[in-house]
Amino acid sequence: MEVTTVSPSPASPTEWEDLCETDVTNVAIHSVTLLVCLCGLVGNGAVLRLLSLQNRNTDIFDLAFADFLFLLFTVPSALLLLVEDVSCSHIVPLLYLNFLFHLSAISLYWALFLTTDISSTLDMCILCCRCNFPSACCG
Question: Across the chain, what does the average pLDDT equal?
Fold first, then answer.
């Protein structure tokens, strides 16, 4: 009686290339981003609705609108990235995700510009009022 050993055949490198590995960190980051963006959309939507019912403060309304636009462009990209991470396949081409990113960046820069403009206007008003300069914003 002869003893023979049978060893499993080594797996070829091409067999393992089709396997999908879900990165838990990316899924968690995209999930939290999506949750924060959805909460921000609800909050900014409420601010826009409340300010449109009354005599609106244009500075706050503009900031809420710019933030709402940023979140509106960020939600689809976060959702697409989350679905791509979970399904392990590309849903949309990278060009479209890049376009969504640039749209959200433009709306973010717009919000930052509005914040800077409001801040500088308030600083000028405070300076004019404290120095007793005649100014339309002190009256």
Answer: 75
